[in-house]
């Protein structure tokens, strides 16, 4: 009997001790969270104010998760709550915490060192706040940490060596901060690393590739937008067999592109734009069968565009503009039936534009500006590109008339044919492009039906209700500006018809274009009066100098041009009206102004 009694007493003691410990620990967690709440200075949705109270069980509080075994707080997730204030050091008392997510709030100040007590922590996310100071050394004490998110804050200083001691780390996001210094070779300790993103900081020095090779599971490597220098090893992709995303653009890297780029069949995007790379694009790049994006723009690459790029069936973005590439645009690019953006501008490419690229139904953006392309536009140019929104082919040596089929690309928004040798009539069918915002036909040889005819194409453009910029300058259009100019889009901000050999007068209807900022009718053969209706153009900027007075209706325009005018105009705000060098243009007399 005595033995049984002793056993019962012992079990009772153990139960009471366990109960007391549990109660004490719950109280500890509750106290830590109330202290955290006390540091909150902004809670616009009242999440903590109304929910976090003694009357509610702690494990039912918003953002709180508890473990079933110990009934301790294991997760604190208050992301996207717009909370403001400092992060309380008392959070370091949540000793069972595994997941801490305070991202997308307005926390500021430094991270308290007490957070280094959270030895069970695996996820630590404070991205998208206003936290400052250095990346704290206590991170090195979080021996189970797998995911560290510090992005979009104001962290400064260098990467602490302690960070490299977290050998369990799999993902580090710390982009868009102010971190400087170099990446230490100690990064070799992070053998489990899969994601490393320190883009848009102030890192400098060379990338310690031989150390990074220890992270053989690395999939995502983002260091774009820094000041890193040095070259890329030729075997880079061979030594990182799982690499899918490699973003190194906007740095100071130089040398040749690694030949191993074509050895990664699992690669997704290579982005090396705006560095100082030289040499050729690797010919084997076409072997990266799953790649969706190649961004090599803004370097000093030379040679031809490899025909093998045409084998990249999943490619969506091909951007190799602003280089020294020569030769022809490969016909094989027409095989890229998932391509959305083709950016080859400002190279030395020659020959005709392949018909095949206008048969890629997924294409949205074609930019070929500033090359030596010649020949005619394909007669079926708009028929196979139903999703085309941007077509930039200016600054080339193209010729011929504009095929009317171009308006079959009904989603066209920006169309630039500037500085070529196109001729013939401006198609009346441009009016079918209801999404058109920019039409640049400048510096070509377009004409109208006869030297005295009104521009019929301008009437068709009145159907383009989203049109903001219309550039017709330096074409021998002749003819007369029709009254329908006043029916152009209410959104029109720029109209340039300078040096077009226009005759007649400026229609009064131009005063209907209330959004107009720039109007350039210079170097034409206009005559008559400046319409008083132009006084309605409140956004117009600038004005031409005349020997006689300016119509009073224009005196009230809003922006001062820093020039000296005879009284009373010296006190008025005059706008840029780009009517420079207009011949025989007269100013209305007071009679015409109704005085």
Structural Rg: 34 Å
| Count of separate DSSP helical elements | 5
Which regions are unreliable across 5 or more consecutive residues at pLDDT < 50? Answer: 3-24, 543-549, 558-595
- Intertermini distance: 123 Å
Q: What percentage of residues falls in helices of 4 or more residues?
A: under 10%
CATH architecture of the domain at 413-595: Alpha-Beta Horseshoe
Q: Which geometry do the CA atoms define?
A: globular
Total E-strand runs: 41
- On the 0 to 100 scale, the average pLDDT is 88
CATH class of the domain at 413-595: Alpha Beta
Major sheet, described briefly?
20 strands, mixed
CATH topology of the domain at 413-595: Leucine-rich repeat, LRR (right-handed beta-alpha superhelix)
CATH superfamily of the domain at 413-595: Ribonuclease Inhibitor
β-strand percent reads: 15-25%
Structural class: mainly beta
Can you offer a commentary on this structure?
9% of the residues lie in helices and 23% in strands. The chain contains 5 helices and 41 strands. It has a 20-stranded mixed sheet, with no helix packed on it. It has a 12-stranded mixed sheet with strand order 1-4-6-8-10-12-14-16-18-20-22-24. It is globular, with a radius of gyration of 34 Å. 41% of the residues are buried. Mean pLDDT is 88; it is low at 3-24, 543-549 and 558-595.
């Amino acid at each position: 009997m005595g033995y049984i009694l002793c056993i019962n007493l012992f079990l009772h003691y153990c139960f009471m001790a366990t109960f007391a410990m549990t109660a004490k620990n719950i109280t500890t967690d509750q106290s830590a969270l109330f202290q955290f709440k006390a540091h909150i200075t902004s809670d616009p949705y009242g999440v903590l104010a109304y929910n976090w109270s003694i009357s509610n069980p702690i494990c039912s509080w918003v953002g709180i998760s508890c473990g079933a075994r110990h009934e301790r707080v294991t997760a604190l997730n208050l992301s996207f709550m717009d909370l403001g204030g400092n992060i309380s050091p008392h959070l370091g008392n949540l000793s069972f915490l595994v997941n801490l997510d305070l991202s997308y709030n307005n926390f500021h100040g430094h991270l308290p060192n007490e957070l280094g007590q959270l030895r069970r922590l695996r996820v630590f996310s404070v991205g998208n706040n206003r936290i400052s100071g250095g990346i704290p050394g206590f991170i090195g004490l979080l021996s189970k940490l797998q995911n560290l998110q510090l992005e979009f804050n104001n962290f400064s200083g260098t990467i602490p060596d302690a960070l490299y001691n977290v050998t369990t780390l799999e993902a580090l996001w710390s982009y868009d901060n102010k971190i400087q210094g170099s990446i230490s070779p100690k990064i070799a300790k992070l053998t489990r690393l899969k994601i490393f993103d320190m883009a848009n900081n102030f890192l400098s020095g060379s990338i310690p590739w031989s150390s990074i090779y220890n992270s053989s599971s690395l999939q995502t490597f983002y260091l774009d937008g820094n000041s890193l220098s040095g070259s890329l090893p030729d075997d880079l992709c061979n030594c990182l067999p799982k690499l899918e995303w490699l973003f190194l653009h906007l740095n100071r890297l130089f040398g040749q592109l690694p030949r191993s780029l074509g050895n990664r069949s699992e690669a997704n995007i290579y982005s090396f734009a705006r560095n100082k790379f030289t040499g050729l694009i690797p010919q084997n790049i076409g072997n990266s069968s799953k790649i969706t994006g190649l961004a090599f723009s803004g370097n000093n690459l030379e040679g031809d565009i490899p025909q093998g790029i045409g084998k990249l069936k999943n490619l969506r973005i091909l951007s190799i503009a602003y280089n020294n590439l020569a030769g022809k645009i490969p016909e094989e690019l027409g095989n890229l039936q998932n391509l959305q953006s083709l950016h080859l501008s400002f190279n030395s490419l020659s020959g005709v534009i392949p018909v095949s690229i206008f048969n890629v139904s997924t294409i949205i953006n074609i930019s070929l500006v500033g090359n030596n392309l010649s020949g005619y536009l394909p007669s079926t140019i708009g028929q196979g590109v139903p999703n085309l929104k941007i077509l930039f082919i200016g600054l080339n040596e193209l010729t011929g008339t504009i095929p009317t089929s171009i308006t079959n690309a009904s989603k066209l928004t920006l169309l630039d044919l500037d500085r070529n040798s196109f001729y013939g009539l401006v198609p009346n069918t441009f009016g079918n492009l209801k999404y058109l915002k920019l039409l640049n036909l400048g510096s070509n040889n377009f004409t109208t039906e006869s030297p005295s005819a009104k521009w019929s194409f301008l009437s068709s453009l009145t159907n383009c209700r989203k049109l903001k910029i219309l550039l017709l300058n330096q074409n021998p259009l002749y003819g007369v500006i029709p009254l329908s100019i006043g029916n152009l889009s209410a959104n029109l901000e720029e109209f340039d018809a300078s040096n077009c050999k226009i005759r007649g007068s400026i229609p009064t209807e131009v005063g209907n274009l209330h959004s107009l900022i720039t109007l350039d009718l210079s170097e034409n053969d206009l005559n008559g009066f400046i319409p008083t209706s132009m006084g309605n153009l409140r956004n117009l900027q600038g004005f031409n100098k005349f020997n006689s007075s300016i119509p009073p209706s224009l005196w009230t325009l809003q922006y001062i041009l820093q020039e000296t005018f005879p009284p009373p105009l010296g006190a008025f705000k005059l706008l840029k009206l780009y009517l420079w060098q207009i011949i025989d243009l007269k100013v209305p007399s007071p009679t015409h102004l109704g005085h």
